[in-house]
Amino acid sequence: MERAERILLKRITFDPNIFGGKPIIRGMRISVELILSLLAQGETTAALLEDYPGLEPDDIRASIAYAHAVVAHDTLDAIRAVNQ
User: Which residues contact 18 (CB under 8 A, 6 or more apart)?
Assistant: First the structure.
């Protein structure tokens, strides 16, 4: 995993009290799953940033980096270790 990706992944957190521990962005009630779903449906980064004022461009990139890490078969433990 590249350094830039590791830095982005620090924006992804896990809180058992929010969405049952699903990965979320910076402790907010915005899940990585939601961001990826909206992107897959054709939403633009600009639209997401407008619809979710607390969201930052790096949060969207972090969501994509998270998806890449999962698809690349990196373990969730390795991803969580980045966040500690």
Answer: 24, 27, 29
